[in-house]
Design brief:
two-stranded antiparallel ribbon, alpha+beta, single chain
Length: 308
Amino acid sequence: MPGHTMSMILFAYVVRVKDGLPLSASTDFEYSRDLQECKTHLKMVSKMLGQFPGRGTVKNNQLHIHFTSSQGVAYMTICCSYYPTTMAFCFLEELGMEFTSSVEVAKIQLVSRPYAFLEFDSVIQKIKWHYNYSNRPSLKISVTNIQRELKVTPPRQVNLDDIVVTNGILNGNLHLCSGSAPSYRLEPVSAVGILSVFLNIVCGALNLIRGVHLIEHNFQDGNEEKGSVVAFFVAFITCVLQCYLYLFYVSARMIKALGALTLICICNFYLFGLRNLWQILFHVGVACLSTYRILSRKLTKRLADCGV
């Protein structure tokens, strides 16, 4: 259908990697709140490109950001989420070849004003048109090459929440005028989230009580109980960690949440015998619920008060 072939590549951006200086960008023909918000995120990523060598992708609901860097220059684009990743990187590769063939590398490193190569916009628009509206035979060859490269070195998946928080810290935007409250905060806790915290506290208390009980009554029986004591206490600490991850924002939240879930599963399977199957399923089920609530609680923007 025509609606699905138009404007799949919405925006393109050429930027210097070392300092995030914009060199050129495509002229806006699309206006929407989601696109404007995504452009804000794209510019945040552009200031941190030194941390993401090679190719990367930032997924943001209906719009995705893709970027690739070469010879100190990064090429970035905003695409509809349904647009194939391979085609997006094919577009960026062609954009990079055109830019390097028309601009001297020495000039790129010397420019100090933003959008010094804004005239390159006409080239961007031409390439965008071909990818949005045309099925050129030459594209198929490029797609095959890019598909092969992406299989060998897939693009790095960049977490949008980490980008927002890190960029805010670097620019001093995570504080109000008083310098105390953050501009970004987690969404309000939900009823299911509160339930998950309560159940985690129950599980943590059970682990602590059983661990202490095992020390008091069974530690003298031999070394075979030491592993169980450690498992109970590790499970207790991990339950506390899950509560903290839900209530407060930390960096690399997904990795830590999944790591906590893995630890709880390992500890409970190790304790099979001291716990029956239903008890293990209860503890693992609570851990899964908590992990889901941690990962589904997103950041929201908080408007600055500034004493008004």
